[in-house]
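A note from the maintainers: we've had questions about how concatenated examples are separated. There is no special marker in the raw files; a new sequence line simply starts the next protein. For clarity in this README we add a label.
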Amino acid sequence: MGRSWQLLRRLERLIQRVPTWLAVLLSVLVLAAIAFWIQEDLVIERPRDLLGREALKIFFDNAESFAIVAAVILYFKGAPDRKAQKHYEAWRIIDNAAAAKVSTSYARFQALQDLHRDGVPLRSLEAAGANLAQIHLTNADLQSANLRGADLQEAHLSHANLAQAMLRGATLEKARLKGANLRGANLQRANLRDADLTGADLRGANLKGASLRGAELWKAQFLGADLEEAELKWAELAGSELYGAKLHQTVMPDGSVEQRAMEYWADRV
């Protein structure tokens, strides 16, 4: 399915490069040539024979087919304009929901997924307090997005770019953040319980008071991350993942509390 979609996209881009009039003209000429070729009783020896009664009759008999092909080409050629209009409407829905401070909006939810599916970056998105539970935004570009207090419970955000994103107080319980880029993100007081952060980049992230209880942190990076008063009880990790993290009043995976303000370099979990 994915390969077929890619081939269709390539065909669409190829058609867009050809001028509309030339694409229609070539298509009609090719179809006319085929129509003439399959007529066994039609003999064309000179160019003027193409204007003969029999040739013109064949051409007009197939006019409907020519018109259909021309319409299909015009439809493909108009795809960029329709897509641009679709994206404009999607952003209008998203902006209106943010301006009205609506927490739950199915229209916004769907608009975000549609934009992402079309490869549109969602950088600097304004969706504070939005209900986006279980949304599918794998590989999405959400750099510097404002998702403060948003509900992203069980959201599909694997390999998403959330660098410098505002996620303070957000609910990311059981969210799929495998391989996500969260460098410099503000996750203060965020709920990341049972989230999958395997291989995630959390370098320089603010995780003060965040809950990472039961989270999967295998091969995650926390260098320079602030884990003051954060909870990592029952979190799954080897230990080296926390190297360079700033700890203070931090609940460690074994339930102990690191009272001192320190950077974590020791082999202990």
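[label: protein 2]
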Amino acid sequence: MKVVLTRPVGKSEPLSELLTQQQISSVICPVLQLNEVAVSDTAKAMISEAELALFVSPDAVRYFHQLEVPLAGHCGAFAVGEGTADAIQQTLNIKAKYPKQPDSEGLLALPQLSSVEGKRVLLVKGKGGRPVIAQTLKARGAILDSLVVYERIAVKDNADGWLDHWRSQQIEGIVITSNSAADAIFNTQSSASKDWLAQRTFFVVSQRIAEHVQQSYNIEQSQIVVCHGPDNRAIAGSIIDYTKQQGRKMTQSESQTKNTNTQQAAKAAEQTVTPHHAKVGVSKVALLALLVALGSGAGAGYVYLQQQQQLQQALLANQAINAENQLLNTQLSSAKSQLQRVENVLDSLQDNVAKRLAEQQQHVETQLTQTLAKAQQQVSGAVASEALYLQRLAAFKVAAEQDYLGAIAILQRLQESLESESNTAAVKQAIAKDIAALKALPQPQTESLYFELHGLLSQVDTLTIKTKQIPQKAASEDAALSQQVDDWQANLKRSWQGLVDDFITIRHHDEVVIDPLLDKNEQLLIRTQLRAYLTQAQTALMDQQASIYFSALDSAADTLARYFDTQHAPVNAMQQALNKLSRSEVQRQESIELATPAAVKGWLK
């Protein structure tokens, strides 16, 4: 028996060697190629979060290893079969659990995967394939992340080239390891190629592939052999067992054919010899000729019978082909009608989608317009509030404080806030007019006078109060008594002085002290009085009360001259400053009416 091995490049050589050892010829012809699928950074981030990792094939393990993103230390690994588990051990250095039944159902039957609710499960797989693992895990409550790392692509667009080559090589068996490989092999429009495939024996690695080949391509179940497993030894063992079984059937068939021919020849010889058995003088040559004639007749009959059987088989095959063609035509008509219905449904869906998209786009545009209008209203409201506040503040600065520079700064800020607003020409003209008018007015001295008084207030604590210094005590005479008799008068005076000092203390000074002495509390009161006069002058200045202003300055000057040392430089400097302030003019200037408030109110309306 000669078989073709259709696994991808680099995967069929070990199987070919095993078959060669058993005298079974094989041809390596890959029908699929594996390509790496680009994995995004978001998908890579799922790897480190996985609690369980499932690998569906050794190829999935190999392409996963190329990502160079390790699994978490607590992550458990599971494989569909032993071969995949070995690949995980060799490549990732992780011992993986695998089922005895090497397929999706066997993997899902593991006890560790029965309770996965709330767990992060990473399924490493190829593009496409069966969804049974993903569906079952989701049904069990797992948080499933599918990581597609490779895809299978047919080497050729159609299978005609392969099939012609296989027919020339007289291939009898075809090894199929995936549904994708089966689809690639049967991708032909040639009836002769389909008929030839229908007479081959297919070695598949799972019952799922057998059902796919049987249902999709009408292959008889008797021509499909399900191997013991997906690994090379299991496939080779299945092919060897099938070859031995077919050899025994052929031997039994040939033995039965020979026995049948011998029995027919013996019966014919008996029938021929029996009538002449009574004759004694029959020659041996005649008998031999008779036997040869009988053998030739039997051979010719056998050949005729074989030809009739072949003709009958051809007729049956032709009838089967016609029936199959009718079935295919029926299926084609059904497929065309289904396609037409699908196209109609698709057109309807496209119309509905286009209609809904248009409605959603119109809805979004309407919402966007409303949102922009609302935002514009909010912005306009904020600008209007700011403009109203600024014009009021500018009017207050001019009317109440006569702070023309401050009012000019506020009007300039108002002008900047209205730059992006519409219909503000009249307001801007009024602002420009008011700024020009304020700049032309003479600046009042209120602020300078106020700050000068503030400076005098800060110096009150440093001024020297006029007080008398107590003179030094006069030198006292020596109170010691003399030992001389002649000094009896001095000794008597000294004794009397000592007696008086015990009852009355008399201090003698060289200068006469007339002015009273001031203690600390009295000095504090004097400084507080001076500070009160200066503060009163400040308040009267801001209130434009000239009489109170000048009266407070006079009182401050009088207090300064009466209680403070005018010979001291700071006191003298403050006297000069108070005299200068007393000569200043504190008269309220004529108020100016701004045009900006009326213009702003008109713009807001």
